[in-house]
Amino acid sequence: MTGLPLLSIAIWLPIVGGLLVLATGGDRNAGLARLVALIAAVAGFLVTIPLYVGFDATTSDMQFTELLPWIPRFNIQYQLGVDGISVLFILLNSFITPLVVLAGWKVIEEKAAQYMAAFLIMSGLMNGIFSALDAVLFYVFFEASLIPMYIIIGVWGGPNRVYAAFKFFLYTLLGSLLMLVALIYLFFQSGFSFNLLEWHQLKIPLTAQIYLFLAFLMAFAVKVPMWPVHTWLPDAHVEAPTGGSVVLAAIMLKLGAYGFLRFSLPIAPDASRELAWLMIALSLTAVVYIGFVALVQADMKKLIAYSSISHMGFVTLGFFIFNSLGIEGALVQMISHGFISGAMFLCVGVLYDRMHSRQIADYGGVVNTMPKFAALFMFFAMANAGLPATSGFVGEFMVILGAVQFNFWVGFAAATTLILGAAYTLWMYKRVVFGAVANHHVAELADIDARELVILGILALCVLGMGLYPYPFTEVMHASVENLLKHVAVPKF
Does the pTM exceed 0.70? Predict the structure, then answer.
């Protein structure tokens, strides 16, 4: 431990950086704004590295803790800390932010400062979500993170951006209101405390646990998003700019899944076991049904958006089969999905920047004019389909093993994603990349430049490295996962 308030720095450095970017003067100094944004994003990532390096993987206790009074009258505190589950998501979030800034370097020409600032501020807020140990603090960060994404979609999005932004905001906000009611109930049940760690020790009757679980489910299922409250995601992805889609897929979808681990399972463990059948059914529906929906998409972004829903179904399935293989596999899948889905949306962005079309039918023969891009796109497509030796395989394989331990037929149903994932991803790739040059627009395409090569190359190394050697990730989370499983296994009422 360094003695520095590393978590506070990880939260507030990007936010202050975003405000500095806004202070550069906007479009009059767009070059300066981009430079300040990149420096702030890289610095934001660098300050999170000591969190991993100094992390003690042998304990499930909260580490790098900070505690300051915030609103003493209601016993609300500025309380931060990370365990083996949350520390990895702070690193993932801070790692993705510089890549998103670089991705919008040339593409965003109007209001570039505001665009970069929105991502920096959102990065800080999401670090707050992953490190908050006070329920009110969590809720404030949870809701505040909606605002930058709402602005990103609404200002820099496509033709139907206002509709998509409103749908995104209303869906996620309405679900969160039920969570607020649950938080107030727990405040009174715990003797006027918003401390999450104290809430984990509460003995709550089963009926009350079920109501609490359902309230949290409404908030977190929309964020994941689980079937059937997933319909906002394809619209948001299609209309969002490339950077917005990357952060939405790589980080924001993880907030709901993280909420299950921090609230639903430890606070309502008995209800989690009672309603596990419901969560497994919803998860398998997402894995199988949404996989078929992805097969018929004509828009590349919409196809990858549905792919994300299917892959996140794997995550919630892993949580509710209550074994370490399942939960650790789900966590690995979340991090892997951050790399792969982010890279897939960046690949679509590369094509869109050149042809201003996301329709699969408008492409064909891209490999003839963009060979370097085609090779990287192939690698990410294979990883999305779960190719062994890529990170996409590791998490899915662990969840399938855990599901088979739980119930053979659940594992069998989950394994169909390996077939469906290959079908929709590789069929899209074949139609876009292979074959003869489809039209003069494709014939005029220029291959990726150095900036795009660096962004996609870094993500490719992450996907390959995690696929070949996932131990650095699983080692960190193991003690926290085992502690959570012990907690859920002990009847509390």
Answer: yes
